[in-house]
Automatic annotation (TrEMBL):
Gene Ontology biological process terms in this record: DNA integration; DNA recombination
Residues annotated as domain Core-binding (CB): 3-88
Stored InterPro entries: CB, DNA_brk_join_enz, Integrase-like_cat_sf, Integrase_catalytic, Integrase_recombinase_N, Integrase_SAM-like_N, Tyrosine_recombinase_XerCD
Tree of life domain: Bacteria
The name this protein goes by in its record: Tyrosine-type recombinase/integrase
Family: Belongs to the 'phage' integrase family.
Statement: the UniProt record of this protein carries the keyword Glycosyltransferase: no
Annotated source species: Janibacter indicus
Keywords, alphabetical: DNA integration, DNA recombination, DNA-binding
Domain Tyr recombinase: residue ranges: 109-289
Spans through the membrane: none
GO MF entry, a single one: DNA binding
DNA-binding found in the keyword field: yes
């Protein structure tokens, strides 16, 4: 990346941090700047503000549409839109070149949920009495019970856990705080892990979940979930799939959408609609099966 965009990208990242954006959000936004700069270089253009034009942005997004998944294209779009908006705010640009460029749409497809058989397989590969096995068992059960984001689980502190109340306090996006509730088995798994954790070399840290190098990070969590998934025969397993499963199960079992928004830490209906699509499909299927008149005559 040229000195100009590299310097502006670094300043942009610092501004995002000052605004309280999560580390992963900052990384994703900055990647948009980096990939656009590489695109310009591949076209023989210098990655400068002068080449940050609407035409170049449209061409870049068009190339992404041909080579990347829709969700990836939207992520790149949002990162660049945030960057160009910041440039205007900082008076580095007079107008926003992203203005007038439509946000890419994502096909509405129900997200696959974790089945009971898959959950049983996951818990089976986590059996053991050592800290990694006890930790991963507690994590899997906690993700399934509470639908936590990766950053929320890794940010969970020992003082946020109330085993007697079978509840935890979660610090979500925008520093919004909410309560989440545990099943008896998840509480027992967390209790067993915490007792083992007390003898760990990093037990003085406030974060609940530890590794040999310190507190578990979101990237470390994704690696652990993927590894456990591979061992259980579940390809490409990631923490967010537990969040989808949590929402699916909650709605499928009669939970109210308003309550789910609060439990999941959502402030708009957009994610509720996406996460609830699979449960809606299941309910529609069950209703259709009940209404099969052809089976009654």
């Amino acid at each position: 990346m040229s000195t100009e965009l590299q310097a502006l990208g670094a300043s942009f990242a610092r501004a995002l941090k000052a605004d309280g954006k999560a580390e992963r959000t900052r990384v994703l936004y900055l990647q948009s700047v980096t990939y656009f700069a590489r695109f310009l270089q591949s076209r023989g253009l210098e990655p400068t503000l002068a080449n940050l034009t609407k035409d170049n942005l449209r061409e870049w997004l068009g190339e992404l549409n041909e080579t990347k998944r829709p969700a990836t294209v939207r992520t790149r779009f949002r990162g660049m839109r945030r960057f160009t908006g910041w440039l205007v705010d900082e008076e580095e640009l007079g107008t926003n070149p992203m203005q007038g460029i439509a946000q890419p749409s994502i096909p509405s497809e129900p997200v696959p949920v974790i089945t009971d058989d898959e959950l049983a397989a996951l818990l089976k590969v986590c059996r053991g009495k050592e800290l990694p096995e006890l930790r991963d068992t507690a994590i899997i059960r906690l993700l399934l019970d509470c639908g936590l984001r990766a950053s929320e689980l890794c940010g969970l502190r020992v003082q946020d856990v109330d085993l007697d109340a079978e509840a935890i306090i979660v610090k979500g996006k925008g520093d919004r705080v909410r309560a989440a509730y545990l099943s008896a088995r998840t509480t027992a798994a967390l209790d067993k892990y915490l007792r083992k954790r007390a003898g760990h070399r990093w037990a003085h840290l406030e974060q609940v979940f530890l590794t040999q190098r310190g507190a578990l990070s979101p990237d470390g969590l994704r690696e652990r979930i993927r590894a456990r998934g591979d061992a259980a025969g579940i390809a490409h397993l990631h923490p967010h799939r537990f969040r989808h499963t949590f929402a699916h199960d909650y709605l499928l079992n009669g939970g109210q959408e308003r309550d789910l928004k609060r439990l999941a830490g959502w402030t708009s209906d957009t994610m509720l609609e996406r996460y609830g699509a699979s449960a809606a499909d299941e309910r529609a299927k069950a209703a259709a099966q009940r209404m099969r008149r052809g089976d009654r005559v």
